[in-house]
């Protein structure tokens, strides 16, 4: 038996704006027998800039059921910091375009430090995307980012390969 781990799913704008989106998510969770807090939906900043009242209603419905919400590719869209305050996000994902130049590019370093500080102050978990080198991971970790994804850890793998990875290195949750 494998441990239950959080699964992150990218949600397109077209999917999110379907009138039955939240109910479809809940039905899928119920059918799979998975608790809502093990699902994290990744939404882009661009999505957060549309029909704010409807967006908040859908996000609150998901949030109150326990689904985790992440803002993907943070810093690359048309974000307003007001959305970080108004919307029930749990996670900010730092876009790989800011991670690629770490630790040598001063602008990327400043942006990452700022996002990390803001994220901590607002109570968000932060995930760095596109970590490909040990120097990047070391820099991020030393600045408070404890979760990262990228080729440094693994290239994309098939479902079959994932099962093998869990068999070899089971997570301890």
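-> sequence recovered:
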């Amino acid at each position: 038996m494998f441990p239950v781990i959080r699964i992150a799913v990218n949600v397109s704008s077209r999917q999110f704006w379907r009138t039955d989106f939240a109910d479809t998510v809940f039905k899928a969770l119920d059918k799979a027998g998975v608790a809502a807090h093990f699902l994290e939906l990744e939404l882009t900043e661009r999505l957060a800039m549309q029909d704010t009242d409807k967006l908040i209603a859908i996000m609150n419905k998901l949030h109150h059921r326990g689904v985790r919400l992440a803002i993907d590719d943070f810093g690359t869209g048309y974000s307003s910091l007001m959305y970080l305050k108004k919307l029930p996000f749990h996670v900010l994902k730092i876009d790989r375009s800011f991670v690629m130049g770490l630790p040598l590019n001063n602008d990327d370093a400043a942006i990452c430090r700022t996002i990390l500080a803001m994220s901590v102050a607002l109570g968000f978990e932060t995930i760095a995307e596109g970590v490909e080198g040990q120097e990047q991971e070391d820099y991020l970790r030393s600045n408070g980012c404890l979760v990262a994804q990228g080729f440094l850890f693994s290239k994309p793998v098939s479902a079959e390969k994932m099962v093998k990875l869990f068999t070899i290195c089971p997570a301890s949750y």
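Residues 106-122 form the longest helix (17 residues).
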